[in-house]
Structures are given as structure tokens and as C-alpha cells.
Amino acid sequence: MNLGGKKRPQGTRHAGFVVSDLSSVGAGSLEGWIQNPSLLMAMSDRLFAFAKGAYSLIVGWEGPAAEDEGSAPPPVEIRLPMGSSSKSSQEPLHVQFTAIQWLSFHKYSFLALGTSQGSILFYSTAGSLLHRQVFQDTPVLQLRARGNWDKSSQRSSVEELCVVYAKAIVRIDTIDLQPLLHRCLQNAESRAYKGLSEDVFDDKNRIAHQVWNVSRNLGGTSSCIDGAITGVMPPPLLEHQSTQRYFCAITVGSDCALAAHRLSEDRTSSLVNFLIKKIMPATVSTVSALAKFVWRSSDNQEAPEYRPPEVKPQEFGRASLITTLKDRPRHGEKIALSPSGGMAAITDSLGRILLVDTQALVVIRLWKVCFYLLLSLRPTMSLKRGSTSQGYRDAECFFIEVPVTGNPSVGTPSHKGITKQDLVLCLAIHAPRREVVEASFLFASSLALLL
């Protein structure tokens, strides 16, 4: 299967991949299989990942240069491990992947997969399971990585990982996540070098994280459908001298089109306090027990096996509701977040798209279908009966940073001297019911309409 397309004119950047078999993720089973809602996809600079059911597939891109043709690595297939269930082994397992996200740290990339039982699995690009942890016992709805511009690598780097559940939002700082994944990757590479191919990871390693119950702010039986942490926000009016950090989170629920929350940083879950409260007492007790054993024992008896204290579920941090937009029967469906988190595009059940400034928490643009514009740009377009009510239903939004100068080489990762000022934010909207793709610069009036 070749998704690279035909040869483009010289100077146009393109890439593709060739895979002989994608049947594990449903390829070829039905026409339009790639538009199946149960098929999860994530793309990085050089890798593409699919996930469906209990299977995932990592595919490498072929580079844009002619000499890169055929240079893509072979696909890597991942199966959900049988031991991923926290329930009794006598119960039937119906676990599947529900969320997917690439995490890029300078030279290394990792694949994060969420499951229907609330666990997050971290894999290397070779398909080795590096770490697994359960943050909530409900299905993972979404995984989102938010980043900042890194001047040293001249690209956006991941700053945090956001895990969205129906009742809660979890934030994982890369300061806590990156060292653990690198250490697990080195261990996996060492085992592979020695010919040990089995995935062996230590469940005792726990990722420090923060969790907030955002559904409590909405009241009633409302649950979160999608959400995202957009970044740091100012403290409340009466807490300007507070040393705590506050994060802004936006959610869409079953009875609201948009809700904004202020999340208070839970310092008890920071790495330093985690070490002080969890590791230090265990270390002190172990050292004291060994000292007493050496002092009192005169023979070579084995020391009793040490068992670390059981990790208890983390308490919810303080989350307060800032504002909400309720317009029944309309409700939000999906959130698309810009790379830095400053903008968000929200699709709703009435076929509209809201562009939200997440710092000012205001809606700055609203997309509806405009058939006069469509007919003026495409006079031969035929409108189906009843299509006037379609709007942007089932639309998919994606933010792209494109070069200002129009030079395609500026957007390549290998280009030297690129700065954040060389890129402009663009929003791409795919409206499948109208069979169009719209790409608009958010701070300009230009609009491109493509098939």
C-alpha cells in the first residue's frame, strides 16, 4: 500500500510509506476502512502509528528525497499484552486500545497507547513495552502532548502529556516522564543486544502525576467527552501572591459545548515530594533493618525480602470552574489543540466549529457552511438534497505550522536557523459530508478550498 501519491513537482516536500499488509488494523476489510471511527492514528516526523482493537502498527515514512526511497524501516506490530488487566484472570478480557499519541524528545520517540481499562502503555519505536501504569480504572478517552518551541533543536518539544478520562484529567510532566522512558529504553536495548527479546519492565516504577476531577464542576451526571490542558494560567484574583501554579483545562461534555477549568497544582504529587514521602521512608527503614541485622547477626542468614509500600490511588487536586457554554441540545464533540496550546478548535453536534483563544477564553471565530462561497468557488458543485443541514458534521480539525515565506524547505526538520517567527499557524478542516478540505490562516483572511 502506497500512501505517498504521485510524483510532485521539484521543491515540493512529500513523503509516503509502503506496507504490504495492514490487515491487523482492518485494512482492506471494507471500503473506506481508514475512515472507521474505531481506527486510531498518530503521526510524527518519521513514523506513523495505527491502532485498532488490541493491535497497533508502527510504520516508517519514506523521506522526500529520491535517495530515501525504500529507506523506511519495516513495520512493527504491537499486541496488547494479556497481563494488562488489573482484574482477576478468570474474568474474560475485552481490553482494547482507545487512544494513541507520539511523544518526541530530541533524538528519541515513544508511542503512548491508552486502553479501555484506564492503563497507559509506553512503547519504543521497535515495539518494546517500556512502562505501564493505571491512573484511573475507566477507559482512556484521549492522549494529548503539548509542547513548546525548543531553540536548541529548532523544533517543538513535548512539555507535558495529558490523559483524559470521563471524570478526570491527568497531567504528566516530561521532567518526570522522560528520564523513566530513557532508562527503560536503555534496559530494553541492552536486553535485545543480549538476545533477550521478552518485554520486562518494573511495575514498581511509578510516574509522578497530577489528577483533577473536572466532571464534579459541571454537576449532575455530566461526563467529559473530550478535554485538554492548554497551559499555565494566572492565579485567581485573591491569590496573586500564591506560589502555586495553575493550569487551564478545557472540556466538552454531554450537556455543554465548552467548559474551562482552573487546575491547582498539587505539590504533594511533585517528584520531590514523591521521593520524600514514598522512597525516603522505605530507604530509611531498609537501611535501619539491615544495620540491626548486621549488628545482631553472627551467622550468614539471608535478609528478609523487602517489599515496597503499596502505592495508593492519588487524591484529586483542586479544580474550579471558570466559565461554561451551555446551549442545549448542542454539545461539544471533539477538541483539536494547537502545538503550543494557545488555540483550540471545537466541533459540536450542530455541525459548527468554534475557534477558541485558550488564554483569553473567548470564541474568536465560528465556522458554518456557506453555500454561496462554495458555489462561487466551484460552480459545478451539486448540492445533495438535505445537505444544507450538514454543515461541518463529523468534521476533523488539525493545526499546522507552515512557513511564512512559502519555502517548503523551511518546514523540514533538517533546516538550520529556523525560528518560531518563520512559521504561521494554520487550521485545516476536513468536512467529509461536503467532501472538502479547508485550510485557513488564523490571522489572515485567506482561505483555500481543496477536494
Please give a quick description of this structure.
This is Rab3-GAP regulatory subunit N-terminal domain-containing protein. This protein is mainly beta and 451 residues long.
CA-based shape: globular
How many helices? Answer: 4
* N-to-C SSE string, H for helix and E for strand: EEEEEEEEEEEHEHEEEHEEEEEHEEEE
Strand content: 35-45%
Strand order in the largest sheet: 1-2-3-4
Number of strands: 24
Going by helix content, strand content and strand pairing, the class is mainly beta
Query: Kindly state the mean pLDDT as a whole number?
Result: 75
Name a few traits of the molecule.
451 residues, mainly beta, four-stranded antiparallel β-sheet, 24 strands, disordered N terminus
Write up this protein.
It comes from Ceratopteris richardii (Triangle waterfern). This is Rab3-GAP regulatory subunit N-terminal domain-containing protein. The chain is mainly beta and 451 residues long. Among the domains are: 214-266 and 315-367, no CATH class; 369-451, no CATH class. Helix content is 13%, strand content 36%. It contains 4 helices and 24 strands. The protein has helices at residues 174-193, 215-218, 271-296, 371-377, and strands spanning 40-43, 47-52, 55-60, 76-79, 97-105, 108-115, 119-124, 129-134, 142-150, 155-164, 168-173, 210-213, 224-233, 246-253, 256-264, 319-325, 332-337, 343-348, 353-357, 362-367, 396-403, 423-431, 436-441, 447-450. The strands form 6 sheets. It has a 4-stranded antiparallel sheet, with no helix packed on it. Strands 5-6-7-8 form a 4-stranded antiparallel sheet, with helices on one face. Strand 9 (142-150) and strand 10 (155-164) form a beta hairpin. The protein is globular and about 60 Å long. The chain starts with 39 loop residues before the first strand and ends with a strand. Mean pLDDT is 75; it is low at 1-13, 85-92, 268-274, 297-311, 371-389 and 410-415.
